[in-house]
Amino acid sequence: MARHRHLSRRQRIVRRNRIILACTSTILLIAIIVIISIAVRERNSKSTNNKETENSVTNTQTNESTDNVTNTDRENISSTEASSEETTAAYKVTSKGFKIEEIDGITYVDGVLIANKTYSLPGTFVPTDPDQPVTEERSIKCLDKTLMSAWNTMHKDASAKGLNLYISSGYRSYNYQVTVYNTYVRTDGVAKADTYSSRPGHSEHQTGLCFDLNTIEDSFQYTDEGKWVNDNCYKYGFCIRFPKGKDQYTGYQYESWHLRYVGVDLATKLYNNGDWLSLEEFFGITSEYPN
Ligand SMILES: [Zn+2]
User: Fold this and answer.
1) Which residues surround ligand 1, an ion (CB under 5 A)?
2) How remote is the CA of residue 257 from the centroid of ligand 1, in Å?
3) How far is the CA of 208 from the centre of ligand 1 (A)?
4) How far apart are the CA of 61 and the centre of ligand 1, in A?
5) How far is the CA of 91 from the centre of ligand 1 (A)?
6) DSSP assignments along 71-123, one per residue
7) Is it the case that residue 175 has pLDDT exceeding 90?
8) What pLDDT does 63 receive?
9) In this structure, are residues 205 and 259 in contact, taking their beta carbons and an 8 Å threshold?
10) According to the model, what pLDDT value does residue 55 have?
11) Which residues in 8-26 are b (16+ Cβ under 10 Å) and which e?
12) Which of 23, 132, 159, 181 makes a 20 to 30 Å CA pair with 7?
């Protein structure tokens, strides 16, 4: 401080101005640095956001393309399966997309055993899970265990309404059908016999999963029993196997008395709010003899 006393006034002014200039420059420099750093930070954050957005777009595209590949693969797999199965006849798909499996000569569509004019049973086939052992050529007792349980419930409910339902025909062996069919052919010829009787191996009665009720006559549909069966059997898992007006699908005339057990879910779909569908229509399969 002592030295200031020796400085002239002009020198003091110059010195002060220099200090002010230095301070101003420093402040300006700091301000510039701050502004630049803020600008750089903003730019960085913007470019990061952009990158993130780009990444997410890329991810979405990647996912989509992955999905497309998966779908294409699926299509390829199914078409490969379908085509290879068609050639090997081990796995086919019906016209409505249901899986057809052939196990030990027995055909299952969507897991449902099918015996019709297209799909036959081996001569050795007998009901796989009978309520009672299969020992006779024909029986109303050695039917499928699950079917019998459903039948007992349906029979009880029908009886409670004063209706008289009874099974008139149940299981029939392959050999029994040989005898029956040949008798009809001798009487009416093949063409006529094929409209009401099954060729051996093609009869659903060999499965143990169906039965005929009461009188096997057209008049059954007009009885109280026939009407009740038509409107209620699906609740117990039964379907009218050969519905009215469905000959072109089933290959058989209307049989109001012939019930097939398929389980409540499928039976309800076949009931179709009273407009019975045949198994053939529902699954998209045929019922035609090969010759
Ligand atoms: Zn029948």
Assistant:
1) 212, 258
2) 7
3) 11
4) 59
5) 29
6) HHHHHHHHHHHHHHHHHHTSEEE-TTS-EEEEETTEEEETTEEE-SSSS---T
7) yes
8) 36
9) no
10) 35
11) eeeeeeeeeeeeeeeeeee
12) 23
Q: Where are the domains of the chain?
A: 2-87, 114-283
CATH classification code of 114-283: 3.30.1380.10
Whether 195 shows a pLDDT value over 70: the answer reads yes
pLDDT exceeds 50 at position 280: yes
Please give the residue that has the higher pLDDT: either 171 or 84: 171
pLDDT grade for 6, boundaries at 50, 70 and 90: low
Cα 102 to middle of ligand 1, angstroms: 24
List pLDDT tens digits, range 200-209: 999 999 999 9
- Residue from 86, 136, 225, 255 carrying the catalytic annotation: 255
- What are the CA-CA distances from residue 18 to residues 5, 25, 177, 207 (Å)? 18, 10, 125, 114
Residue indicated by tokens 């297209």: 118
